[in-house]
Amino acid sequence: MTLSDTPAYFSVRDIHAYYGESYIVQGVSFEINEGEILALLGRNGAGKTSTLRAIARTGDPQVTQGEIWLDGDPLHEMASFEASRSGLGLVPEDRRIIQGLTVEENIKLAQIAPPVGWSLDQIYELFPRLEERRKQDGVTLSGGEQQMLAIGRALARQVKILLLDEPYEGLAPVIVQEIAKTLSHIREQGITTVIVEQNAVAALKLADRAVILDTGTVVYDGSAQSVLDDEKLRAEYLAI
Ligand SMILES: Nc1ncnc2c1ncn2[C@@H]1O[C@H](COP(=O)(O)OP(=O)(O)O)[C@@H](O)[C@H]1O
Ligand SMILES: [Mg+2]
């Protein structure tokens, strides 16, 4: 990818990251326009999670080079909590629901510090199941409901871009469809999304664009539909 002078709404520019001596993210670049959904795909071990973690500045892997811009803000110059305050919302694979807190308390905890995003009512309108279970301990929810709670909690912060790491993992097809519908609704609210998924077909159906990683580098950047149409590409990098 050629880097222009002005970064796009969300722009990842030539990032490199390491776990100790292991060189994992090897110069990844991609851009997303505001309100788009990007599917970040690739085989197991391709570096998808590491790329999300590098973007969210979790500290591990360690980013040694590169720029990350969100709506004009240089996230690469920020600590993780500042990036989150600037509108970056990472929903990690393990969902991180806090045990001993109800569904509602999990959401309210995210709203303690400004900038606050969606209200409880808005979150419950998007996920009626969460309202039904609002007094239940968050960790007793089903997998699909926990994923909804993790997304709802990210929206409770003023989020500009959602980074979802395998939101469909372990979920029944009907629940995958339900969550996909809410992700479309979230896009209609102008929120930009990166979705990492092993369920590539489901992610591609939802996404506008796709980036495919292989051993920590970008091997495809283009429309999501073209990936669905390209059997060779799918066989080579996605095994579908
Ligand atoms: N904490 C870690 N320490 C060392 N190596 C890691 C760590 N996490 C992931 N890796 C390695 O980095 C590579 C990319 O992993 P990952 O980003 O999790 O891939 P993906 O999410 O695409 O399956 C793999 O080779 C994996 O073994
Ligand atoms: Mg992963």
Q: Please tell me the overall pLDDT.
A: 95
For the sheet with most strands, the description reads:
6 strands, mixed
Structural class: alpha/beta
CATH topology of the domain at 1-87 and 161-166 and 192-240: Rossmann fold
How far apart the termini lie comes to 26 Å
One letter per element, helices H and strands E, the order comes to: EEEHEEHEHHHHEHEHEEHH
CATH superfamily of the domain at 1-87 and 161-166 and 192-240: P-loop containing nucleotide triphosphate hydrolases
Strands ordered across the widest β-sheet: 6-7-8-3-9-10
Q: Tell me the helix content.
A: 25-40%
CATH architecture verdict of the domain at 1-87 and 161-166 and 192-240: 3-Layer(aba) Sandwich
According to DSSP, the number of beta strands is 10
CATH class of the domain at 1-87 and 161-166 and 192-240, anyone?
Alpha Beta
Q: How much strand content do the residues show?
A: 25-35%
Radius of gyration: 17 Å
Number of helices: 10
* Bound chemical compounds: adenosine-5'-diphosphate, magnesium ion
Shape: globular
Low-confidence stretches: none
